[in-house]
Automatic annotation (TrEMBL):
PANTHER family: DEHYDROGENASE/REDUCTASE SDR FAMILY MEMBER 7B, SHORT-CHAIN DEHYDROGENASE-RELATED. Keywords: Oxidoreductase. Pfam families: adh_short. Belongs to the short-chain dehydrogenases/reductases (SDR) family. The gene is actIII. SUPFAM superfamilies: NAD(P)-binding Rossmann-fold domains. Its EC number is 1.3.1.-. The keyword Membrane does not apply. This is Putative ketoacyl reductase. It comes from Rubripirellula amarantea. GO terms for cellular component: membrane.
Length: 256
């Protein structure tokens, strides 16, 4: 029986990814800040799929969070076969108007915790010659995002980091995949403020469909998974346009 740790599994894409892994017979470790939601999900997973579901409460914006989380794994004797770095959030607004703390927390969760957790867990996967990392990025990775500059930059990091790692572990038996969702129905739209933009609300996919695509892509050891033809079309057309054009389009869509 293998164990999958999913960060940000209290809602949205992470919750659906946790169910996908559990449905396939994997034990799961659910990580986020919302204790009630994780406890309820763990109960649902245990009763629906008959697998073990552990809950670890962690605020990944805190510098010591990843090390504490790994200590808890060790205390419970949990060996992680698959790590899903899904926790993340965004904030719509000008860099100088959004709070410095919120943007720093964003980098801590979207970038630093993802990197440190990978550094902690990947060596054991390479040693075992199995398992892997599924990082949740975004189609925001492919261009700059005026009015959401830190979020877009954080997702560009996730894509670049994942691709770099993938080449490094080639031939070890370890999978490394980046899931790049476009607008998705979850807590993200309201929390970030993006939900009120036309570009977001008119083209959302369900979190379940995004998770299914991510799970399948990870199992098949695909490098990058972009769910939905509209999102794939957007990313492809971005690659043909000069960066000055793409950032101006995003600036207009995001109300600069
Ligand atoms: N929805 C979209 O349109 C979209 C598009 C592209 C990419 N994504 C990416 O998809 C991933 C999942 O987001 P989602 O759409 O499913 O949004 P969501 O429903 O808001 O879920 C975000 C998850 O991250 C967790 N999280 C946030 N801050 C955290 C912290 N400080 N410590 C620990 N966990 C934290 C939340 O749990 P708690 O609040 O319980 O801590 C929650 O479980 C994110 O990386 C996001 O950037 C989303």
């Amino acid at each position: 029986m293998s164990t999958t740790l999913i960060t940000g599994s209290s809602s949205g894409i992470g919750l659906e990814l946790a169910k996908q892994f559990a449905k396939d017979g994997n034990d799961v470790v659910l990580v986020a800040r919302s204790e009630d939601k994780l406890t309820e999900l763990a109960e649902t997973i245990r009763s629906s799929f008959g697998v073990r579901a552990d809950v670890i409460i962690s605020d990944l914006s805190k510098p010591e969070a990843v090390d504490r989380l790994c200590e808890r794994l060790q205390d419970r004797g949990l060996e992680i076969e698959t790590l899903v770095n899904n926790a993340g959030f965004g904030a719509l607004g000008k860099f100088t108007e959004l709070s410095a703390d919120r943007q720093t927390d964003m980098l801590m969760v979207n970038v630093v915790a993802l990197t440190r957790l990978t550094r902690q867990l990947l060596p054991q996967m390479i040693e075992r010659g199995s398992g892997g990392i599924l990082n949740v990025g975004s189609i925001a990775a492919y261009q700059a995002g005026p009015n959401m500059a830190v979020y877009y930059a954080s997702k560009a990091y996730v894509l670049s980091f994942t691709e770099g790692l993938r080449e490094e572990v080639k031939g070890t038996g370890v999978h490394v995949t980046c899931l790049e969702p476009g607008p998705t129905e979850s807590g993200f739209g309201d929390d970030s403020g993006m939900g009120r933009l036309d570009m977001f609300s008119k083209s959302t996919m369900s979190a379940l469909d995004v998770a299914k695509a991510g799970y399948r892509g990870y199992r098949n050891n695909e490098d990058i998974v972009i769910p939905g033809w509209q999102n794939r079309l957007m990313v492809t057309s971005t690659s043909f346009l000069p960066r000055i054009v793409t950032r101006k389009i995003v600036a207009r869509m995001q109300g600069v």
